[in-house]
Amino acid sequence: MGSFDSTDKRALLTAVIEAWPYTVSEIENAVYSASNVAEQVIIVAPEGLCPYEPKDLADLPADVLRVPFWGNFATMRNDVLTRVSTPWAFLMFGNEAFRTEDRTRLLAALDPEQPEVFRVVVATGLRGQVLAEPVRLVPRDPRIRFAGRIWPQVQGSLMEYGHAAQSIDAHIFRLEDRASTFLATQRLRQALEEACQVEGRHWPHHLRLAHLYWALGRYQDMRSHLNRVPLHLPHLVRRMVSGLEMMARLDQAHYQGAREAALRVLEDHPDWADAHVIRGRAAAALGHYDEAFAAFQAAQSLEEPLLSYLDPGYASYRARLASAQALFMAGDARRALASLLHLIQDVPGYRPAWQEVLAHLRGVPPEEIFSTMATVVAPSKIRQFFGLLSEPTAEETPMKQWLFAHQFN
């Protein structure tokens, strides 16, 4: 462990508290409980959704951050985490409070020399009924990002970069009973619909609601609101509008339409990685595997911006996986397997790539699979990956058992 004592360790942590849809009194309770473990507290108020301005929360010992919101809390959280300057971020909602008596245990887990990712117990009610044990304590690592069409999920990116989530015997109490994701989504939809009714000419409300309807698979409603967004708007807004429309066509299996739309976008914006990925997905679905491979390769050479309609990694490791899959479909298994192994060497926790390799080598004895992988992937990375699997699939189990039985050093 590092040389920090518990008091000093507060400086390692920033508490990030999401303000929507909570009251000022609830947020105040969250802030003061979080300040017991974090020297800095940030209140996140999503624009166009949360009514609070910095002046409304000025009396609290926290910074109020107004951030863009386009219907996706995962993208919003990623944006906020890029602004955290401490080694760790502690994530809370505005109706939660951290239990003071667990302060020492939480701070003791923070080792500046070996940052890890932690789960924290979330409970509710007078008896402290446990609701979940989600990831709430994350190191400042730009590779750890949240995904999800509406609500944040982080486990994928943890595995993709070799972080195993540890558990801390510390508790966050939520000041309400368990609310399902469905009810939370319904509340979000109602809030956005009310905003559209009150300010019908304010195009950001329509874009936010269009994104939500796309995530819900309500494509006619999505297009109705996209049509209310003017044509002459900033670059990012037009990119979001065209991206949602292309993604909807993919979702609805209108692959030729998605491909043609992507090609039109790329005529004017050849540097849009998302359009290349969408073109590649559509081309692969149509059986144009060479075109798909080229499109995915093009995406990997471009910058990957944070866009609300595509998960993190779509133009990097996810595109590399898709290009290998295109090679498999084109019949070039040798190049495809080599591409996958190089991807695993670079991103050793990316489970879909491992699963693709195991699917290709189905029926091959574990020792031969290990030998094949070890031509590119470091044996230590192979052992580490399978050692971290707590619930291996039927194809992963033989490899995990074989590695355990042989006790490689």
**Mean pLDDT level:** 89
Look at the structure and give the CATH class of the largest domain. Alpha Beta
Low-confidence stretches: none
Whole-Å distance between the termini? 26 Å
Gross morphology:
flat
Query: Helix count, per DSSP?
Result: 18
Tell me the total number of β-strands.
Answer: 9
Strand % is 5-15%
What's the story with the biggest beta sheet? 9 strands, mixed
Rg value:
23 Å
Structural domain count: 4
The CATH H-level homologous superfamily of the largest domain: Spore Coat Polysaccharide Biosynthesis Protein SpsA, Chain A
Structural class computed from helices and strand pairing: alpha/beta
CATH topology of the largest domain: Spore Coat Polysaccharide Biosynthesis Protein SpsA, Chain A
Question: Can you name the CATH architecture of the largest domain?
Answer: Alpha-Beta Complex
Helical proportion, percent range: 40-55%
Order of helices and strands: HEHEEHEEHEEEHEHHHHHHHHHHHHH
Which helices and strands appear, and what pairs or packs with what?
Elements: H1 6-9, E1 13-18, H2 24-34, E2 40-46, E3 63-67, H3 73-81, E4 88-93, E5 96-98, H4 103-108, E6 117-124, E7 129-132, E8 135-139, H5 155-160, E9 165-174, H6 181-198, H7 203-215, H8 219-226, H9 235-251, H10 255-268, H11 273-285, H12 289-300, H13 317-329, H14 333-346, H15 351-360, H16 366-374, H17 379-388, H18 397-406
Parallel strand pairs: 1-2, 1-4, 2-3, 6-9
Antiparallel strand pairs: 4-8, 5-9, 6-7, 6-8
Helix pairs in contact: 6-7, 7-8, 7-9, 9-10, 9-11, 10-11, 11-12, 11-13, 12-13, 13-14, 14-15, 16-18
